[in-house]
Amino acid sequence: MKYTFIKDHKHMYAIKLMSQVLEVSARGYYDWLNRVESKLAQDALQNALDLRQPKNKVIVHSDRGKEYYSGGYQALLKTNDLICSMSRKGNCYDNATMESFFHSLKVEQVHHDDYHTRDEARSVIFDYSEVFYNRQRRHSSLGYKSPINYEAELVD
């Protein structure tokens, strides 16, 4: 789970932003949920599976959080023939792609806004990730193409 601090007009508060699913090949960001329930990671993975419908073996990388080694999450991986990969203990570089996404989110969006409500923050973050990041933002690692455009070229 990823936490960040969001300020509104009255105070600053921690918000559990999302359980993230990011496709590394195209650097596209394919699902996020902002619920706090224990099934958050499972729901995010299931939503990404429903959206992407992978045909080949997929490696699902995560940190070592309890939500990722829970029985339900591991069963979902097994049921969908997904390969589980977890960060090594104390190695933050294993999750560098995801950390890069969150850095971009904060620098390009969150730190420039003053949200009035949590719902407003969630809406703005959704627009950033789903509209801007995937469809418009150019990535140097993708030849200065957006994830959607890069992936379309891979398919063609």
Structure description:
By secondary structure, this protein is α+β, with helices and mostly antiparallel strands. The chain has 6 helices and 6 strands. A two-stranded antiparallel ribbon has the order 1-2. A hairpin with a 4-residue loop joins strand 3 and strand 4. The longest helix is centred in the C-terminal third of the chain and has 18 residues. It starts with a strand and ends with a helix.
Rg from C-alpha positions?
Answer: 16 Å
Shape: globular
- Given helix and strand content, the structural type is alpha+beta
Sheet bearing the most strands, described? Answer: 2 strands, antiparallel
The strand line-up of the biggest sheet is 1-2
So what's the oligomer here? single chain
The structural domain count equals 1
Compact summary:
This protein is of the alpha+beta class. It is built from six helices and six strands, in the order E-E-E-E-H-E-H-H-E-H-H-H. The protein has one domain (2-155): Ribonuclease H-like superfamily/Ribonuclease H (Nucleotidyltransferase, domain 5).
